[in-house]
Structures are given as C-alpha cells and as structure tokens.
TrEMBL record:
The keyword Electron transport does not apply. It comes from the Bacteria. This is FadR family transcriptional regulator. GO terms for molecular function: DNA binding; DNA-binding transcription factor activity. Residues 1-69 form the HTH gntR-type domain. PANTHER family: TRANSCRIPTIONAL REGULATOR, GNTR FAMILY (PTHR43537), UXU OPERON TRANSCRIPTIONAL REGULATOR (PTHR43537:SF5). Keywords: DNA-binding, Transcription, Transcription regulation. Gene3D superfamilies: GntR ligand-binding domain-like, Winged helix-like DNA-binding domain superfamily/Winged helix DNA-binding domain. Signal peptide: none annotated.
Amino acid sequence: MAVTDEAILRIKEMILAGELAPGDRLPPEKELSERLGLSRSSLREAVKALEVIRVLDVRRGDGTYVTSLEPRLLLEAMSFVVDLHDDQSVLEIFAVRRILEPAASALAARNADEDDLARLREVIESVDHATDVEGLVAHDLEFHRGIADATGNSYLAGLIDSLSSHTVRARIWRGITQEDAVGRTLAEHHAILEAITTGDGELASALTVAHVSGVEQWLRSAL
C-alpha cells in the first residue's frame, strides 16, 4: 500500500474510533505525524487528498478541520480509497476504453470539422500546470467527450461518456498521487489533438492507446 494511502487509512481509523469527529481540528502536523508514525510529507499528501474529497477543510492560517459531514458520510467519502484498491471492475472499464477511444480518435481525425477542432483547442487552453486535480479531471473528461462527439457517431460518443463517468475516482486518485500528472496529461492531449488536426488517424489512435494505457498501468500498480 502506498504511504499516502496508509496515512489516509490511519486518519479514517481515528474517525472510526471517535478520536476525530465532524468539526474537530486536527492536531498540529508534527504531533499528528509522530502519532501516526508517518513522515510529515506523507501526512501532507494525505491531507491534500482528503481535502479534495471534502473530508478535511484546510483553513489557511487557522488549521485543518474535519468537515461538518456526519460520520457516516465522512466514512463513505473516505471509502473510495479502499474501494479503488478492491474493485477490479474499474480495470475492465479501462480495458474497454483502450479499445474504443483509439478508434474514436482515428474516426475524429477523419470527420472532425473546424468547430470540433476549435472546441478541443478551447478545452486544452482552459487548463495549465497550475490547474488543481479536480480541474484536471474535469478537463480530461471534457477532452475525451469532445473527441467522441467529433466522430459524428452519437452512439459511440454515448458509450465513451458512460464509461468515463465510472473512472472519475481513479483519475482523481492518480492526479493526487502521481508526480506531474497534470503536465503528463496535457502533453498527451496536445499530441492527440495535433494528430487529429492533421488528419492522421493512425497516429491519433496510437497516441490515445498510450494515453489510456498509462492510466490503466498506473491503476494496476496501485491495485
């Protein structure tokens, strides 16, 4: 288990044991890291992850608090980390995406019109290296949706959109735990769009295989 995951599970145990309740302020970083037997950097990553999923509320200059959600909802929010490690079905979804999305990119390279390409450029230009994890995942979903729409096949677009909606948690977790996930994703999106723009369906397909496989490979190692 990754150190960040371990830190999150330790904090979850504190909530389960009643040591932390909704509205409680977390002990200072140094004290909490020593109490949990973790490095301060690992604890910092865990806090950042739990802030993204709305379990913790980081108030600059004040401290870090457990959100006001009732314990049941807090634990449900945290359970997605455990679910991600236990649920093999998400790997099957990525395997299907790896089949469908390269075909969609190749089809988009043949069928995309200027409006489709302008929309994809706009999606890419809406984010940069300063974008947070939630913004990156929203961008990723929109980019792949734009490619699917550009195929001109509404049924294929619907299938891809439905599959993508089931991989949001995995994408968020990758964005939190993998170094430079934002930079890597943007570079890959730029390359795919360039291939689609030049009408090179074979290259667009190959780049999309590499793009989707990268997330799938990371997920396999995480599981």
